[in-house]
Amino acid sequence: MTSYIGRFAPSPTGPLHMGSLVAAMASYLDAKAHQGSWLVRMEDVDEARCLPGAAEAILHALQALGMDWDGEVSVQSARTAHYAAAYDRLHGHTYPCSCSRREIADSRLGLAADGSAIYPGTCRNGLAPGKAARALRIRLPHIGEADQKISFIDRWQGPVSQDLAQEAGDFVLFRADGFWAYQLAVVVDDAQQGITDVVRGVDLLDSTARQIYLQRLLGLPTPGYLHVPVVRNAAGEKLSKQTGAQALDLAQPLASLGEAAGHLGISVAGAASLDALWRSATEQWAVRFARRR
Ligand code: GLU
Hints:
single chain, alpha/beta, Rossmann fold, 5-stranded parallel sheet, globular
């Protein structure tokens, strides 16, 4: 019997590349090292960014690399009713916002760590006359109020603490382009799938406090977190489709997996088969990352 449920939650904006493989591998190894289940969820809630065929290509790549998932693949675009229901449960903690990107940028409150502009709170007390709602936002506690600071222990990064009001601002739950925001969708889905441990790239470390805040408001459990370093290209940018990441060479699965393992500080040199490689990598991961609760 195990209580561990992990997940890999790619956005199907392109094929699997070295950056997304490292996140997939880390979540897979953590699940295997804890005799847990490993689920795959397609985060296609931002339908405008998704590429036809990318979800199938990612699943095909996972299979070719020997990473079999448990259960059905869950798909966010089929779950919008659940996001709407969660939003309704946040009643009293949300408000409509009419501000354009330009108006928010002009307020010069600065940028959250993820690069989004911190919202100045213009529409907190109601829309200005004649203005229409574009987006829906969370109403965070004011600076100085007790519960605005979120702290957690990340199993790779150590103690993390974020002052939400100051460092993130009232963030978006429903976007001006008509899609539910990642922060809300991920919280609803992690809870619905019973995820006990979230393992993903450190680029999402800054989102975690927002997600924990939403979990608390919705009365949902907070999973454990482990954020692995992201792979960077020669220019030092996070490897992604936008920064020119290449699709993996699936004809060389051992080489691709060996490179990904190296990014996680694991050596699988000499593994002659997928089975042997996964066994060795899981043993090494288990020694380093035994979950302590
Ligand atoms: N869909 C997100 C991404 O591909 C990952 C979300 C998560 O793991 O929480 O960057």
